[in-house]
Amino acid sequence: MPHFKECHDSVRPKDVGLLAMEIYFPSMFVDQMKLEEFDGASPGKYTKGLGQLQMGFCSDNEDINSLCLTVLANLMKKNDISYADIGRLEVGTETIIDKSKSVKSVLMKLFEDSGNFDVEGIDTTNACYGGTNALFNALSWVESSSWDGRYAVVVCGDIAVYSEGNARCTGGAGAIAMLIGPNAPLVVEPGVRSTYMRHAYDFYKPDLTSEYPIVDGKLSVQSYITALDNCYLNYCKKAKNKFHMEHEFSLRDFDFMVFHSPYCKLVKKSLARLALNDFLQNRTIYYTEKDQRNFSNLDNFRAKDLKSSIFDKEVETAFMSASTAMFQSKTENSLTIASRVGNMYTPSLYSCLISTLINHSSSELSGRRIGLFSYGSGLAASMFSMKVCAVEDSARKAKLQKLLHGISDTVSRLDNRQEVSPQEFADALKLRADTHLKCDYKPSMSPDNIFPGTYYLTEVDAKFRRFYARKPLPAQNGHVTNGH
Length: 484
Ligand code: ACO
Description:
alpha+beta; Peroxisomal Thiolase, Chain A, domain 1; three-stranded mixed beta sheet; globular
C-alpha cells in the first residue's frame, strides 16, 4: 500500500495530479489519403481539410471492455503497482454496450487475485467529456476527507465510429489510463477550472441499437467554439486571481495548450480562437514582442464580436495566420497521436497531453503550465491546467522521468500498426454494425493481428455475458507470459 504521509486528518494531500499514464490504440489503421479516394471525397479533404493522416479502428473482437482491460492492465504492469494499492477507479466512456452494468465493474476482474474489492468509483458518460469528469472525481477523492491514502486511477476509452458519410473519416478508437495521487510530477492546478454546460443536440446517440451517433456537424463545431470562448473567459479571470497576477492572463501564460481533438484542423482553429479572444480583450499586449508583431496589422478586426465571428472566414484566416508561431510552439506537438489515430472521444484530450509530453524532454517540460480544453457534445466542456514539477525538485523530477519513460514507446507502437485498405476498413465497420449487441456470438476476426498483451472478446453467450482472453506477451526467458 502506498504510504502517503498526507493521509492524516490534520494534513491535506498536496500537489495532486498525474503520476503515470498509459495509452492503448488498436493495431489496425486506414490511411486517410486512400480513404479520400475510396469515399470519392475531393483529394486533400480529410488530410489537408481536416488535418488527419490515419485512423485507428477495431474489428468485432474488441469492445469497450477489452480496450479498458488492456490499458489498465498495462498501466499497472509497467508501473509495477499492486491492485491492492488502488482505492478508487473511475471510467469515462460514451461507448455503451450495457444499460446497467458498468465498464468499471468489468475492470474489477483484474483485481480478483489481489483480493482488493474496496474500490470506489463507477462510469461517467457525456460524449467526449466523461473522461474529464472521471478525472475531476478522482482528484476530488484524493483531496477529500474520504481519502484512505491509496491511489486513484482514471480510465477513459471509446470506439468512435460513424455511419457512411462525411463524418466517418473523423472516427478513431483507443483508451488511456491515468494514475492519480499526491506529490505528482504533473499537478492539476486547483481553483482555476472553468466549465460551460448547456443543452444542445449537436451530437447524440438516441438509437441504443446502433453504435453510430446522430451528428449535426456545423452545430457541433459552433458548440465547441462557443464552449471554448466561455471556458477561456472564465479560466482567465480565475487564473488572474488565483495566481495573484498583476497583468491579465493571456495565451502567453500557457506554455503548452492542448485541446479535445475531433480532427486536427479544429485544434489549429481553436488556438487561433484563443488568440482572437485575447485580441478582442486587448490582452495581446502581454504577448512577447515577437508574437505581438504578428497581430499588429489586424486593427480592422477590432469591432468584431465573438458570437458572430464563429464562421467568419476572414477573421478565422487572419487569426490562424497571426497565431501560427504560437501554434507551433504550444500546440502542434500535441497532435502526434490524434493525427494518426483519429478522434478517440474521451481519451482524445489526454492523447494530446501524452503527445505533448513525448515530444519534449523532462527539462523542456519542467515548471511549464499546460492548458487543457475538454469538450463533450450535448454539451459539457471545461478548461483547466496542469503544472509540470520544477527541475529543482529532484524527488518529483524522478517521478516525471518515470512517467515519461512509461509512454516513451508510443511512437514505435504507432509505427508498428498494420495498415489495411479502405475496403477492409469498411468491411470491419459493417461487421461491427451487423453483430452489435448480438448474443450467442463468437467474433469472426482472429486475434492474430492485435498487439501482444491485448485483451479481446472471445464470446458473447446466450445470456449476453461477455468473455475475454488476453493475447500473450512475447516470451521472456523462454516463457510466454499473460502479463499478470
Ligand atoms: N482540399 C483541402 N481542403 C478541403 C478540401 C480539399 N479537397 N475539401 C474540403 N476542404 C476543407 C474545407 O474547406 C473545410 O475547411 P474549413 O473547416 O477550414 O472551412 C474542411 O475541409 C472540412 O470540409 P467541410 O466541407 O466543411 O466538411 P464536412 O461538411 O464534410 O464536415 C465535419 C466536416 C463537420 C467535421 C464532419 O466530418 C463531422 O460531422 N464530423 C463529426 C462531428 C465532429 O467531429 N464535430 C466536432 C466537435 S464534436 C466531437 O468531438 C464529436
